[in-house]
């Protein structure tokens, strides 16, 4: 027998191509999923489920894929949307409820009830491959959330409040469904169940716009759960085109990069930093080119003179012009927005409203926001402010750059501490790189 043929040869080839360590395509739940999708018109054989050492479950190419080629075409009949919900047993309850429920709540309620129905649900083959829990901060212990850097911690706490408030506000609607599940509806539609459904929608839907309907709130109805397609993992370096094709009535993804046979196929969830990926999807990406360290207003205020009588006005100008969001340090130094905010805060009392006739009669603060030079003293003091902020963020005492090894040993069962540590380690590296950039600029 030719040693390059047969199962052994195929295993060696896959190892050389550096991808899959296991093929879950033959696992019972995936066999059922593919059979179910085939019954709904799905015929694509270009991708195959697999397990990868770095990303876990995903999809690999079953053949060579070329740039511009459609890698998946999912029929509308496979998509789970609010149309699905309205055509189900929930439809009359949603249409008759006032005030209207949101499209998000409609989808979440349907997911929970269909999961409860089990084998009676026509969506069971899809529901069986969904995660039983998620790694988004809404699933975390409160103590673990407190270890996050301040900016992302505030957003994580807001996420947790959002889900809790959604559950509280939805309870009267849930009780209206009692005729469907007499005496047990509140045992089915619990906070834990809604949290699972909320994360399912938040992490796994694709964009598919629906017309506004009176039975829903004015919140955009753009969610579509896409079985099988949602197994594609994220990579910041890939380019794809993804949209619902109105002619073919399929959701299609077209790759802009080439794949060899047996390589993992990726999509890009968006140009997100790791804070956003952690909040929205429950993971961080290694070597993320979009990663940065956020600076809060409270951090900046520690280094701005409280004797500045114009300070309140300066903050108002920054807020009115959108310069209090996304103030960051990156590997290449402070962001332009952070530098600009610091330059405005460092304007002297005589400079803030001074007319700059050489610049279209703009006052100096407008000139700063437009990115123009004001004075050498302003550049000098603003750069000093930026250096102080960077130094402060690098100190262990401010909540960055320290490790949580002791907490990991005490709470070894908490896998989310690993995510926190990875985020903090990367922040420390970014701040060190930014400090080096600032030092070099100071030497010039």
Automatic annotation (TrEMBL):
Residues 1-25 are annotated as: Disordered. It comes from the Eukaryota. Keywords: Methyltransferase, S-adenosyl-L-methionine, Transferase. SUPFAM superfamilies: SET domain. InterPro entries: Rubisco_LSMT_subst-bd (IPR015353), Rubisco_LSMT_subst-bd_sf (IPR036464), SET_dom (IPR001214), SET_dom_sf (IPR046341), SET_MeTrfase (IPR016852), SETD3_SETD6_MTase (IPR050600), SETD4_SET (IPR044429). Pfam families: Rubis-subs-bind (PF09273), SET (PF00856). Residues 45-270 form the SET domain. Residues 1-16 have a biased composition (Basic residues). This is SET domain-containing protein. It comes from Ranitomeya imitator. The lineage of its organism: Eukaryota, Metazoa, Chordata, Craniata, Vertebrata.
């Amino acid at each position: 027998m030719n040693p390059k043929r047969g199962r052994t040869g195929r295993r060696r080839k896959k190892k050389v191509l550096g991808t899959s360590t296991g093929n879950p395509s033959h696992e019972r739940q995936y066999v059922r999923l593919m059979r179910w999708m085939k019954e709904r018109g799905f015929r694509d054989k270009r991708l195959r489920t697999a397990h990868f050492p770095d990303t876990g479950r995903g999809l690999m190419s079953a053949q060579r894929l070329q740039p511009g080629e459609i890698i998946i075409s999912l029929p509308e009949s496979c998509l789970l949307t609010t149309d699905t919900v309205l055509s189900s047993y929930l439809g009359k309850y949603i249409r008759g409820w006032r005030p209207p429920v949101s499209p998000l709540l409609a989808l979440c309620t349907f997911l929970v009830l269909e999961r409860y129905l089990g084998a009676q649900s026509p969506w069971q083959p899809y529901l069986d491959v969904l995660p039983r829990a998620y790694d988004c901060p809404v699933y975390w212990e409160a103590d673990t959330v407190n270890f996050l850097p301040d900016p992302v911690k505030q957003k994580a706490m807001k996420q947790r409040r959002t889900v809790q408030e959604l559950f509280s506000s939805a309870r009267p609607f849930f009780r209206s469904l009692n005729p469907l599940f007499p005496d047990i509806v509140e045992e089915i539609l619990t906070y834990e169940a809604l949290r699972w459904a909320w994360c399912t929608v938040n992490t796994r839907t694709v964009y598919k716009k629906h017309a506004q309907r009176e039975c829903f709130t004015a919140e955009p109805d753009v969610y579509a759960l896409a079985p099988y397609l949602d197994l594609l993992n994220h990579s910041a370096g890939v380019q794809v085109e993804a949209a619902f094709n109105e002619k073919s009535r399929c959701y299609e993804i077209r790759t802009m990069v080439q794949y060899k046979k047996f390589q993992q196929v990726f999509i890009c969830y968006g140009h997100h930093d790791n804070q956003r990926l952690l909040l929205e999807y429950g993971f961080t990406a290694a070597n993320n080119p979009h990663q940065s360290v956020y600076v809060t207003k409270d951090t900046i205020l520690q280094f701005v003179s409280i004797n500045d009588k114009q300070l309140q006005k300066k903050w108002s100008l920054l807020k009115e012009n959108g310069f209090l969001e996304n103030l960051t340090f990156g590997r290449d130094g402070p962001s332009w927005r952070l530098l600009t905010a610091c330059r405005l805060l460092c304007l002297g009392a005589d400079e803030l409203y001074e007319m700059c006739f050489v610049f279209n009669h703009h006052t100096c603060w407008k000139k700063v926001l437009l990115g123009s030079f004001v004075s050498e003293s302003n550049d000098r003091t603003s750069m000093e402010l930026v250096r102080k902020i960077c130094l402060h963020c690098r100190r262990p005492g401010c909540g960055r750059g320290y490790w949580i090894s002791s907490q990991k040993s005490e709470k070894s069962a908490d896998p989310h501490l690993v995510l926190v540590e990875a985020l903090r380690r990367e922040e420390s590296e970014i701040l060190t790189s930014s400090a080096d950039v600032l030092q070099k600029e100071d030497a010039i």
